[in-house]
Amino acid sequence: MSAVEAAPSKKRTRRRDSESTPKYPLPQFRPFQLCTLTDDIPVGADWLFEMKFDGYRAQVAMSGADVVVYTRNGHDWTRQFKVILPPLQALTRGSALIDGEIVAIDSQGRTNFSMLKTGIAAGMPLKFYAFDLLELNGEDLSTLPLVERKERLAELLGERDPDDSLQFSSHIADNGKKIFDTMCAGGHEGIIAKRADSRYVGDRTASWLKIKCTKRQEFVIGGYRPSDAGRGMASLILGTYENGKLIYRGRVGTGFTEAMRKSILAQLEKRPLDKPSFVSVPRDIARRARWVKPELVAEVTYSEVTPDGSLRHPSFEGMREDKRADQVVMEMPKTVVTTATANLDPAMGKEIARAVGVTLTHPNKLLYPGTEVTKATLAAYYAAVAEKMLAQIHDRPLSLVRDTDGDLQQTFFQKHKLPGMPKAVHDGKLEKMSGKESRILWVDDLAGLIAGVQMNVLEFHVWGSLRQQPDLPHRMIFDIDPDEGLGFGDVKQAALDIRGVLEALGLQSWPLLSGGKGVHVVVPLVPEADWEEVKSFCQDFAELLARTDPSRFVANMSKAKRKGRMFLDYLRNGQGSTAICPWSTRARAGASCAVPVTWEELPKLTRANAFDVFAAAARAQEPDAWPGYFEVEQTLTDRMRKAVQ
Q1: Under 8 Å between Cβ of 476 and 538
Q2: Is the dihedral of CA 169, 174, 179, 181 positive or negative?
Q3: What is its EC class (predicted)?
Q4: I need a labelling partner for 158 at 20 to 30 A (CA). Which of 186, 258, 541, 555 fits?
Q5: Which residues are catalytic?
Q6: Taking the mean position of all CA atoms in its chain, how far away is CA 56?
């Protein structure tokens, strides 16, 4: 018996009021964890598979009988979904925050989005399928593994009658292909694959995947074509956003009832525009179009996307009110991180090492205190990032940072061969500009990267040139090194400003999170200028910024002169100087990595060490953050040199 129930009361009505008072406050809305679209079905018992529902994603917050239903944008839709409230109001005297999907079930036992829209308006029976528990009685569960959260959720929900509007979304471990085929054969939308050990993250991640039986998503309505009879609406003109611009994706003219056409047309006629919001529209489509403000969102199925980006065989499914138009982007399937890479399974790391001819001694040795990152984990990591990293490290002279005792306290640089090195880390001669001959190291495949792991290498640093062309650098690097008192916001703004100056000179650049405190602004070059020319330009560039903005920049590496400012390190641009290789791990607490990012996402990032090995492995499976880096052809010109002097 609780203290509230045990407390004496002078009036019976007062005791009832006290008993009904929630013990915990109503949980707050949290950003939803979203799924990544893919065509690849992951394998392994560490993946859980659920049915993909065709409904409205919802988050239900409850405290005793007080219940609030939130949409994916955090809007309160409790009134719209009042038919699902009774079992939720009776579920617990405590508090809970549950993630799930609200659906309508058709006569075939399938979730039906069009029927759901009708059901909301008509008050028809709906169901809430609960699949995650984020908070219970004031305890944050989001950091627990998914499988534990689902166990707690199943215990909370208990046995449910099949006709109850509250249901538990069950799952099956492994056998994803068989489950997917069964769902598709039954006319369902597809499956959701979730990592059993994953935390709940309020973002789109590779820990939750969606695999669809048919292609289907939301599109922004940017206009419509009137019917040939001159009255009514024949088709909707659709688009999605890309880098803030509305891109034309075709038209949809099927899947409507007559009542739908009239209802949608009434909404469109309230939003007229004189000109299209699209970047461009085919001339034959634009000729008869009527344009509207891009505020409405439609759900559309289609067979495929044509090479020019338009939909083939689209069919209208319904209007969406739970998603803002500016959030609608084209969902393209991504190659997902497999069990061997996303999970960074140490056992798989050992197998990968053996497969490439490297024997890992002490594979379970912990390399980063306070983490689970072992030698075998790093072998799996480099297998995950190899495709992207090898493009940056192949045939480049190296400096290696090695650890001696596993506590990150005694690391050392290595530039030359030492006894006992694996053969996959190559050793050779190189003639420098000075005419002196030196020994260098390099790697050219995954075996070389994993051989580094065997040697306790925690950082790979590379020259800016190839070993076959040692006198001609392929890149420049501006390393922004902030004073201790400055925040990452200062570093980000500095990187963006440097990009702007470089663009004014005619040079494209790309940002790299260093995995430490700073950002590297990387400028690829056609190898024509020699090291002296490149280093001189970089020094002049750094000194120009220090002269024009002395409150923020210094070109002197002295820490005493750097106080409250950033040192723009141009010294990495000399022959024999190195910089951290993209995708390399760092010899820093937390197993952070140097990761390429886009200029568009840089302002949203909160720190330079935002990616540990697990996040970086997942990131490496996504589209390249540096598109065009290896294709751009740019050189230092006399005009550029004079501009920075």
Answers
A1: yes
A2: positive
A3: ligase
A4: 186
A5: 52
A6: 22
- Which CATH number fits the domain that encloses residue 526? 3.90.920.10
Domain final residue pick, 200, 233, 268: 200
What secondary structure does DSSP assign to 138-176, as a single string? TEE-TTS-HHHHHHHHHHHH-S--TTSSEEE---EES-H
- 340 contacts 352 by C-beta, under 8 angstroms: yes
Mean pLDDT value of segment 623-629: 90
Beta-strand pair 437-442/457-462? unpaired
Residues 426, 393: one domain?
Answer: yes
The H or E element containing residue 461 is: strand 457-462
Domain annotation covers residue 5 = no
Do residues 124 and 77 both lie within one domain? yes
Find out whether 557 and 508 touch, Cβ atoms under 8 Å.
no
Tokens for 58, please give them: 């919802």
Q: Which two tokens stand for residue 278?
A: 């699209």
Give tens-digit pLDDT for 567-625. 898 898 998 899 999 999 999 989 999 999 999 999 999 999 999 999 999 898 888 89
**Which are the contacts of 585, defined by CB distance < 8 A and separation ≥ 6?**
378, 381, 458, 459, 515, 591, 592, 593, 613
| 435 dihedral zone (left: phi>0; alpha: psi -120 to 50; beta) | left
- Report the domain count for the chain: 4
What number of helices (H) and strands (E) belong to the chain? 16, 31
Dump strand ranges (E) for 243-340. 245-252, 272-273, 290-302, 304-305, 311-312, 315-320
- Same domain, yes or no, for 171 and 299? no
Q: Which amino acid is at 283?
A: R
Chain segment 367-421, per-residue pLDDT in tens: 998 888 999 999 999 988 988 999 999 889 999 999 987 778 888 889 888 888 8
